[in-house]
């Protein structure tokens, strides 16, 4: 096995994803000025309901996304400390603890802005505008379903609050399969009906009529962007791969919560074009690709760049992952632009934590076969057990299919749970096992 470098070498990351970073920054900068512009603001969690908010003409703040942004920029500490000071345990979902800390800061500043002096590293965490209403839309996570109820209490239960409920896809019916069967269809109809009730709630709360044509327009752009993203993902079947999981991590924010418009389409068209060019010119994501891996679980937002370079230093291309390849408008053919609610409901049910373990394992093995994967890296997320549920079953299914596996523990937004030495040891052991298997095959 190749010996890893002492300092991880940089991976050859896509340059087109930088445009997405600017779009995301512009989005948040717009949110930060919502109060000055007199805009109505909704805080929400879970599914990508933003097309509905876009059509309603209100500004949306996705709490998980803001927690991830703070962690990715290493500015999560003050918000997490505020959450703990307010009484939220450190073992609580670090997404929730981070943004609940932001909610405390936001409320304090809204109540007495003249006396609120915050440290430099706390400025970003305290910039969210206070919400006018709260919407919860969490699939596959019991903590997420309670998260906005806690936010509701922070703001003294004085805000309009709506919850969309998503049934877990247990797969108990004999005709059930991935996006197939009566259980799937019944669940989709159930969620679509709740989306209609959500629209009625928004109309009542804002006093404005919902603009169905704007929803169709937003979903038109999202469907095109989603297909461009999936086409670009398929190009990574090439060996060596032209892009890695870490590039697709950088594409999550745009497809997850940015407005459905031409800018979104242009961004993913640019990503696809760069990958096509790399394939045509034989430009790899890693200069010495030796291993092809899959990544299961939410990434460590604090460590995205570090992990990308660490795997690259071991000549290991992380090609695909559950969070990037089987979520976020990843079945664009389901979207009916003329009558969008049912297709939207189906996508919300396809949250990567909303399936039973058998289906998750089947999807994993399908991707492993598609991308010619040697091993699976399971990130056991310390404060997000919904992301870790089923991973042992999935690992056994992968091993039975002849794919090597490893586990390491970390977290989505709290860097203190990650231990570099543990990842090094387990990664080295798995890559050695892949080498032994390859030698035996020869």
Automatic annotation (TrEMBL):
GO terms for molecular function: iron-sulfur cluster binding; metal ion binding. Coiled coil: none annotated. InterPro entries: FldB/FldC_alpha/beta. Pfam families: HGD-D. Keywords: Iron, Iron-sulfur, Metal-binding. Belongs to the FldB/FldC dehydratase alpha/beta subunit family. This is 2-hydroxyglutaryl-CoA dehydratase. It comes from Novosphingobium colocasiae.
